[in-house]
Write a structure and sequence with these properties.
- Helix content is 42%, strand content 18%.
- It contains 13 helices and twelve strands.
- Helix 5 links the parallel strand 4 and strand 5.
- Helix 2 packs parallel to helix 4.
- It is globular and about 70 Å long.
- The protein starts with 6 loop residues before the first strand and ends in an 18-residue tail after the last helix.
- Bound molecules: 5'-O-[(R)-(carboxyoxy)(hydroxy)phosphoryl]adenosine and zinc ion.
- The site of zinc ion has 6 residues, from helix 6.
Length: 409
């Protein structure tokens, strides 16, 4: 039964190569009374499609989002028992509004109109959609989808910063009824805020970002360091390609590295550099590391054992730099909470190294990392961030809402 103070938020994420739609119910202000649960969640990863390009191909991503959004909406609403029977009989004005919103999305238009005609308005209070950062053609599909739903159902839109979504996801203490099932797929997954204190330091590591962000209070963010070239996830993806592995590269490189550690194979390769490790700032650089790996493999016979050793040395190098600089920033800014977010935070070795470094910290240090399946892109994080904005009635004006590929926190 729905509590009368609870809000239901539909979340939409299309910034990169995951198309995701979810329905959550949340209640309470930012604090101990805050609670949420998943009512429905549906996600399609396009990773396999982009694999042959060795990275995300923006127009392919756009097309796939357009194809996937309506079926995902249907699935998310269905498991949230919000797929209401009904019929929509738009007048000419409504039809022309929808037509103009979806002018550039013919494929989405073709699947959305029949869906809308056959279903009633679900019981939701707001639609949260990612408007940046990310690939603009991909972001636009989600935004236009949200605008169309908002116009038909008369529900406000919250525009969400994808990186804030990762931060808020990492602030959650999630509870799944079954430890062994995928948290995301379980509609009984629920959560509260983790027990932590501000200021907190967020290490955001994804395919497009590597940033250290200081947050002194909820919703305030100060960028204290970032990558000067490639993002950590991008480096994993490029190194995977150099090693002849699939996309996304992170999990593949990590699997080889783990195998090398398990077999205890001594490293044959010269140690890779630890870029900017000793520089007196909180910036990163990963493109030199990728070049160093290229030199090791280019025009050479590379054995499977070499490949494993390189993967391990690369992962060690990335972990070293990330952990060392994060710990240094923690001390410098007097923070006791480290939050890790973004796809690379699914990396088991990096998680372990951060955990070990936190244990060694003189003052008690709290490490917040979401379960791996919530670390990579999903719609739950967007709906959660959207909820807090909806509480403050921070809604977007549909006429001016636009994709912002380089949106900062
Ligand atoms: O946050 P995310 O899902 O999408 C972006 O917003 O970019 O992050 C995707 C990135 C990819 O570069 C992928 O290779 C990396 O996260 N990644 C990993 C792992 N899982 C995903 N990197 C290292 N180890 C992993 N286990
Ligand atoms: Zn992301």
């Amino acid at each position: 039964m729905r509590h009368n103070l609870a809000m239901r938020i539909l979340g939409i994420e299309t910034s990169c190569d995951e198309t995701a739609v979810c329905l959550i119910e949340a209640e309470g202000d930012f604090g101990p009374s805050f609670e949420w649960k998943i009512l429905g969640n549906a996600l399609i990863s396009q990773a396999a499609l982009h694999a042959e390009f060795g990275g995300v191909f923006p127009n392919l991503a756009k097309r796939e989002h357009a194809k996937n959004l309506v079926p995902l909406l249907e699935r998310a609403l269905k498991s949230g028992t919000q797929l209401a029977a009904g019929s929509w009989q738009p007048d000419n004005y409504q039809l022309s509004t929808i037509n103009s919103i979806l002018e550039r999305e013919p494929e989405l238009h073709a699947s959305l109109i029949p869906f809308l005609r056959h279903h009633g308005k679900p019981d939701i209070d707001a639609i949260a959609v990612t408007y940046g950062p990310g690939l603009e053609p991909a972001l636009w599909v989600g935004i236009n989808f949200a605008k169309a739903l908002s116009a038909v159902w008369d529900v406000p839109i919250v525009a969400v910063n994808h990186m804030e979504g990762h931060i808020i996801m990492s602030l959650m203490d999630t509870k799944s009824p079954d430890q062994h099932s995928n948290v995301l797929q379980n509609v009984r997954t629920s959560g509260k805020l983790a027990d932590f204190e501000f200021p907190l330091l967020a290490l955001l590591i994804s395919g497009g970002h590597t940033e250290l962000v200081l947050s002194k209070s909820f919703g305030t963010y100060e960028l204290i360091g970032q990558t000067r070239d490639d993002a950590a996830g991008e480096a994993f993806d490029k190194v995977a390609r150099l090693l002849g592995l699939g996309y996304p590269g992170g999990p593949e490189v990590s699997r080889l590295a783990a195998e090398s550690r398990r077999q205890g194979i001594p490293l044959h390769t010269p140690a890779l550099p630890r870029p900017m490790l000793h520089e007196d700032n909180f910036d990163f650089s990963f493109s030199g590391l990728k070049t160093a790996v290229r030199r090791l493999v280019e025009d050479k016979e590379v054995s499977d054992e070499d490949r494993m050793g390189i993967a391990r040395e690369f992962e060690d190098a990335v972990a070293d730099v990330l952990v060392t600089k994060t710990m240094r920033a923690l001390e410098e800014y007097g923070a006791n909470t480290v939050l890790v977010g973004g796809g690379v935070s699914a990396n088991e070795y990096i998680r372990k190294q951060l955990d070990a470094a936190c244990q060694l910290q003189a003052t008690s240090c709290k490490l917040l990392i979401p379960p791996p399946e919530l670390a990579t892109d999903n719609a739950i994080m967007i709906a959660l961030a959207g909820y807090f904005h909806a509480l403050k009635k921070e809604f977007a004006a549909p006429e001016t809402l636009a994709a912002k590929g380089n949106l900062a926190l």
